[in-house]
Amino acid sequence: MTGPVEVSWFAALCDDDYELLGVAEPHLLSSWQHCRDIVLAADANGFDNVLLPSGYQLGIDSVAFAGGIGPQTRNIHLLLAVRMGEMWLPQLARQLATIDQMTDGRLTINVISSDLPGQSLASEPRYQRTLEHMTGLRALLDGEPLELDGEFVKLHLDPPRIATVAPGCPPLYFGGFSDAAKETAAAAADVFLTWPDTVAQVAATVQDMQLRATRHGRSLRYGLRTHVIVRETEAEAQAAAQRLVSRLDVETGQAIRERSLDAVSAGVARQTALRDGSDGDGYAEANLWTGIGRARSGAGAAIVGDPDQVVAKLRAYQHAGIEAFILSGYTHRDECDLVARYVLPALDHAPLRPRLRS
């Protein structure tokens, strides 16, 4: 697959910013000032979108942050992460419509299906809860009455008066690797997100999801969430990767991985398997380094190399069916500049257009 791709950056709202993995530094912890600087840099550097992650114990609130940062941005879209079931659905719809208005139609939504703080559900009912909330959210943001008698959502009400800038629900980005997660995405998402993996495995995931979406009478776009370490030479990039984990011990890495509410998900299990199958230097295949996964419960690999190698790897994923990239790197502020300098100019990426009212 060829053509323009969407290229996004990552704002470390979830306390996931380090110079050396596992070595906490107060100025890199999630805060309004630090995360604001990352988002404004990504906007100035020409990224299309920026993911605002959500974690109960892992930093500042994504929805509140989006309301504050949105009016300060000029062109970048906000990929706002919201955990389904954490907020009362009608109020969530009003909040999202308000933020969409505050950003002149530059809102996109990252649906999260992990456990709620203090509550745990098995995979299938958890994804059923997510599906019902996605269905209800889309109806309300589409301006339609909600008539739903589900297992988790039982609501009969008109949509709120406050509406998005353009008619309709902003795009819903969603990822998950269990069968229940994939069926939820096929039935209700707009963009299916996958974590870093070999190019062949990413292609197989896209093909699987295409079949599932077709069975639901739908089509999806596909996105890849991955870290990047790019330097002028491959040797410099590999040295930066090794420096990143040079102070990380096994116990600290395990403690970091276990903090997340999705630490035992199928997706995390796949990232662990990818890391376990890598070579002695941590590479699962050329330029795909799994060392980052030693201290992360989610996306656990990075594309490592010189500018040509990183761009070639992204293009390989694009040919596998990926149409959107959500990139990140350590530190997020510095790597944002490096990716903008070395990678963005070589990619055919068309900025997302605000969803203007017709």
Structural description of this entry:
The protein is an alpha/beta fold and 358 residues long. It has a domain at 6-225 and 321-346: TIM Barrel, CATH 3.20.20.30. 38% of the residues lie in helices and 17% in strands. Strands 1-2-3-4-7-8-9-13 form an 8-stranded parallel barrel, surrounded by 8 helices. The chain has a two-stranded antiparallel ribbon with strand order 5-6. Helix 6 (199-215) links the parallel strand 8 (191-194) and strand 9 (221-230). It is globular, with a radius of gyration of 19 Å. The mean pLDDT is 91.
Brief account:
The chain has 358 residues and is an alpha/beta fold.
Outline type: globular
User: What is the typical, i.e. mean, pLDDT?
Assistant: 91
CATH superfamily of the domain at 6-225 and 321-346: Luciferase-like domain
* CATH hierarchy class name of the domain at 6-225 and 321-346: Alpha Beta
The termini sit apart by 30 Å
The radius of gyration computed from the alpha-carbon positions, rounded to a whole number of angstroms, is 19 Å
Give me the secondary-structure topology:
Elements: E1 6-10, H1 32-44, E2 49-52, H2 62-69, E3 77-83, H3 89-102, E4 107-112, H4 123-141, E5 146-149, E6 154-157, E7 172-175, H5 179-188, E8 191-194, H6 199-215, E9 221-230, H7 234-244, H8 250-258, H9 266-276, E10 283-285, E11 288-289, E12 302-305, H10 307-319, E13 324-328, H11 332-342
Parallel strand pairs: 1-2, 1-13, 2-3, 3-4, 4-7, 7-8, 8-9, 9-12, 9-13
Antiparallel strand pairs: 5-6, 10-11, 11-12
